[in-house]
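Long-time lurker, first post. I've been practising inverse folding by hand and with some scripts of my own, and I keep getting stuck on stretches where the structure tokens seem ambiguous. Below is the full token string for one chain I'm working on. Before anyone asks, I'm not after the true native sequence, just a reasonable design that respects the backbone. If someone could post their per-position residues I'd love to compare against what I wrote down in my notebook.
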């Protein structure tokens, strides 16, 4: 029996430069899809997968994130007085049990691998999940839940994977596959951000991972990789060098790259349409917009 995955690391210390000037004062993870910040989607996904300990790797200027998960007695009392039980219920999802959530600072944005390494003492000798909140994945069963179930069969380390167009491989970690089992693939090697002509496949790593604690050991070496950053992909690839298993997992669901403006807008449309209370009005607006566009052509 594999060990249960109950800890998750949320690396949220990046600068979020693609959303400047907004991210000058608002952490990217607090930016809102319909009415919930990105981080709420990530937390809900982690909870659905059985995660009990939530470790945030933050940086200067991210205090809005810490406040978001704090209790808000004044607001709650006001809502209670006004009998707004529905809103109190909505707020319940933002409440975290004391001790279930921890914040660690990454003092310099040295890369995703470095951010994960900052959590090493809290992870100890256990397998752990990593969730990048700017990858938002919609699906019937959450991506991490699907992965935790698959991990119970495979052990080792596992990365979420999806096919991308070859001209986009230079934006992702790319898998070289030794055995394709359908939903799961056995990984032979991994390359960070290869050009299309150098990419071993078009199977890209997406921001969900279940990692063996050995990956933390690999990160101890502080190897600098693509873009001069300490890359998580490199530390996972070191597992393969050491003869340990790494799997890719083709999740079921639709992934939105909310770290980019176009991806964020697409997610806003998809999540807006998926809300029953918004669907009709929003759909009508989109239909009218399309009709205007075709009339103008
Ligand atoms: P990104 O590559 O999206 O970088 O990081 P970024 O800084 O957030 O955004 P841009 O590219 O400047 O717009 C992917 C994930 O890794 C985290 C980020 O917070 C994000 O969740 N990260 C990245 C860190 O926590 N620390 C780092 O040093 C780098």
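-- Answer (accepted) --
I ran through it position by position. Result:
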């Amino acid at each position: 029996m594999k060990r249960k995955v109950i800890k998750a690391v949320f690396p949220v210390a990046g600068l979020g430069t693609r959303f400047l000037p907004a991210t000058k004062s608002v952490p990217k993870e607090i930016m809102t899809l319909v009415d919930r910040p990105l981080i709420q989607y990530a937390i809900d996904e982690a909870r659905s997968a059985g995660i009990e300990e939530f470790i945030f790797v933050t940086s200067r200027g991210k205090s809005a994130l810490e406040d978001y998960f704090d209790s808000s007695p004044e607001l709650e009392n006001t809502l209670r007085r006004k009998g707004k039980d529905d809103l109190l219920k909505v707020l319940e999802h933002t409440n975290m049990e004391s001790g279930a959530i921890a914040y660690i600072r990454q003092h310099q944005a040295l890369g995703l691998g470095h951010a994960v390494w900052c959590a090493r003492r809290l992870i100890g000798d256990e397998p752990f999940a990593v969730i990048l909140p700017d990858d938002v994945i919609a699906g019937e069963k959450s991506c991490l839940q699907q992965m935790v179930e698959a991990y119970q069969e495979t052990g080792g380390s596992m990365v979420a994977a999806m096919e991308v167009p070859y001209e986009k491989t230079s934006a992702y970690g790319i898998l070289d596959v030794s055995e394709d089992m359908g939903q799961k693939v056995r990984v032979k090697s991994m390359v960070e951000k290869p050009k299309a002509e150098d990419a071993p496949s078009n199977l890209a790593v997406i921001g969900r991972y279940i990692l063996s604690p050995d990956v933390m050991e690999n990160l101890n070496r502080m190897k600098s990789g693509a873009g001069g950053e300490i890359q998580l992909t490199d530390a996972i690839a070191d597992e393969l060098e050491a003869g340990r298993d790494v799997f890719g997992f083709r999740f079921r669901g639709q992934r939105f790259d909310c770290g980019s403006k176009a991806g964020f807008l697409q997610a806003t449309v998809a999540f807006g349409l998926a809300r029953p209370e918004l669907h009709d009005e929003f759909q009508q607006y989109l239909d009218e917009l399309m009709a205007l566009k075709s009339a103008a052509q």
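A couple of notes from the structure itself: The mean pLDDT is 93. The domain at 7-259 is CATH 3.90.550.10 (Spore Coat Polysaccharide Biosynthesis Protein SpsA; Chain A). Happy to go over any region you disagree with.
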